């Protein structure tokens, strides 16, 4: 399908103008006249059918719509510039772009990246996050992590680790009130997550307490928010391991019933089949698989 793009030079002038905050400052940065900047903005407005700047006193100010558009254009230019550096003839930088679910990135991957940097100090790892349930792959990446294997006609799929789930709480909360048996959770605030429905129901059923109804239950939109609520002592949640093993080692959370764990999802590493696979990317993948194999 052909790309239906606005005039690219006008987009460049618009991005600078929105960032600089005035036509005059944009003209200085671009080494253009004020009139040339104005004409490019008018050309883009005509192409979009949308006014991008309004006059306030003696200044032209970007509209709210234009500011949002400029942020996306700026990100696109950054992506193009990054691709040019990575694939240009003179490119020497070693950059790996990872797209991963937010919880996996924050709680499992990032705490381990210092070890990879010691092993490969010349390689930069850039991490972008997505919802773990999001099947779409937006933006550029070299390696993706998902809790489902994805489209195996487009990706080389490698399992990392299978999770188990159990009840977690902050050590501070457990010092005040530690349930001795699952039925004691009746008197506890249970924390759950909209993006992980059924977590509590599955665990309680496995523990023989499928009919238990707690006095209070709090629900959050994403798991990393629920986890923070657990750490802050607001109640008890369902945690997944080894994803949260770093938090457990640091004493941020503790397993309430470590002997009662149920199977959870599996994380997979996905490599696009048609992408370039330089040596530093393969070294990172080898390290990633080693870490996954070593984690309890």
UniProtKB/TrEMBL annotation:
Transmembrane segments: none annotated. InterPro entries: LysR-type_TF_proteobact-type (IPR058163), LysR_HTH_N (IPR000847), LysR_subst-bd (IPR005119), WH-like_DNA-bd_sf (IPR036388), WH_DNA-bd_sf (IPR036390). Residues 6-63 form the HTH lysR-type domain. GO terms for biological process: DNA-templated transcription. One of its GO terms (molecular function) is sequence-specific DNA binding. Gene3D superfamilies: Periplasmic binding protein-like II, Winged helix-like DNA-binding domain superfamily/Winged helix DNA-binding domain. Keywords: DNA-binding, Transcription, Transcription regulation. SUPFAM superfamilies: Periplasmic binding protein-like II, Winged helix' DNA-binding domain. The keyword Lipid metabolism does not apply. Belongs to the LysR transcriptional regulatory family. This is LysR family transcriptional regulator. It comes from Variovorax paradoxus.
